[in-house]
Amino acid sequence: MATNDPTRPVYVIGAGPGGLAVAAALRGRGVRAVVLEKADAVGDSWRHHYDRLRLHTTRRLSALPGLKMPRSFGRWVARADVVRYLEKYAQVHELEIVTGVEVSTVERADADGWLLHATGGRRLTGRAVVVATGYNHTPYLPQWPGSDTYTGTLLHAGEYRNPAPYAGKDVLVVGSGNTGAEIAVDLADGGAGRVRLAVRTAPHILRRSTAGWPAQASGILVRRLPVPLVDRAAGAVARLSVPDLSDKGLPRPETGLYTRVREGAIPVQDVGLITAVQSGRVEPVAAVESFEGAKVVLADGSHISPEVVVAATGYRRALEGLVGELGVLDGRGRPTVHGGRTAPTAPGLYFTGFTNPISGMFRELAIDAEKIAKAVSRS
Question: How open is the CA angle 215-221-225, to the nearest 5 degrees?
């Protein structure tokens, strides 16, 4: 059977923003797309993020194909509004979504099709497959020596919702990316007794907006420029707009901003961290090395005794079981292609949402969706 056989749908794995955008773009080109979602509703990961979270990209530049975000959401869209938007998006585009179905393995069905093994013994055959299971799929918790002896509370940032349970407590947040920085500020604002932020590598910190100009817009403008040029320009802007926090334990990074982006480290958008560090409400400390009962041993040899440790240590893509046998992942478990391109060994297998671009995740998901739909409709 040929790849363009209309009796075979395109299967989209994951009903997050990336999967929904692809399904809508495919439907707009007359291609039947069936979205498979292991949870019981769309946007499951967004439903479980911490309450304070907002998009760090503007509403106008974060809409998916075919539906603007309402002005009532404001410039920086709240987590709950993102969920409402995704629900509305699925309704407006009349997407075909099957919930409660988890795909375990994708393999070639024949020369022109794909076989998906899913829950309940399902064997689904599609003309193409789009993997949109998300950048933040499986929480990663480092195996720190002695962590099993820790007598306090240790949780991953994915389990954190709001500061209420930690009022008056001594809390250590591990990881100075956007999630760790924002949770630390949330705790400080929400009444935690003491908040420390364990930093292994000093992050680049950007003002989310300067004189009304969003950092995302700069990210879009510079992403095609030479890395050294962007590093120099970003360094100059940082010296003018972000105070030197070295005396507070948060020095300026030695590596350029765009160099770090190319290595996979996105800058921290300031949502209160600068002020919190300056005032001492959030105290940067050295990285965590190990645990000893009630104590946490830091990289500088010091010992602290927080009551709670929140590990903002990231996520894994967890694609090995799904497509690991197809030769489409690099050494770090990430897809070697994304958007409208497919690997030579796996034509008809597409990926979206597995990069973390400086220009904004939702914006790139929208671009990828159109590229994938165009590629599938042409095949």
Answer: 120
Name the residue among 78, 269, 275 with its Cα closest to residue 182: 269
Looking at this protein, which amino acid is placed at residue 335? Answer: P
Identify the CA nearest to 57 among candidates 218, 211, 202: 218
Q: β-strands 10-13, 33-37: how paired?
A: parallel
Read off the pLDDT of residues 142-160 as tens digits, 9 standing for 90 and up: 999 999 999 999 999 999 9
CB burial class (10 A; 0-12, 13-18, 19+) of residue 88? middle
Q: What is the pTM of this model?
A: 0.90
Question: Do 161 and 50 form a contact (C-beta atoms < 8 A)?
Answer: yes
CA dihedral over 171, 172, 173, 176, signed as positive or negative: positive
Q: What pairing do the DSSP bridges indicate for beta strands 103-110 and 303-304?
A: unpaired
Q: Which helix (H) or strand (E) holds 229?
A: helix 227-241
What is the length of the chain? 379
Q: What is the pLDDT of residues 100-148, one digit of tens each?
A: 999 999 999 877 799 999 999 999 999 999 999 988 888 999 999 999 9
Is residue 306 within 8 Å of residue 244, measured between CB atoms?
A: no
- Give the pLDDT mean for 255-281: 91
Beta bridge partners of 301: none
Nearest to 8 by CA among 133, 125, 164: 125
Q: Are 31 and 7 in contact (CB under 8 A)?
A: no
Q: Rounded to a whole number, what is the distance in angstroms from the first to the last CA of the chain?
A: 13
Percent helix / strand / coil, the chain, rounded to 5: 30, 25, 40
Q: Which two tokens stand for residue 172?
A: 């250590």
Rg value, the chain, Cα: 22
- Backbone angles phi and psi of 13, in degrees to 5: -95, 110
The DSSP symbol for 68 reads: P
10 Å CB burial of residue 239 (0-12, 13-18, 19+) is exposed
Q: Please provide the DSSP assignment of 118-142 as one string.
A: EGGGEEEEESEEEE---SS-EE---
Residue 159 is classified by DSSP as: G
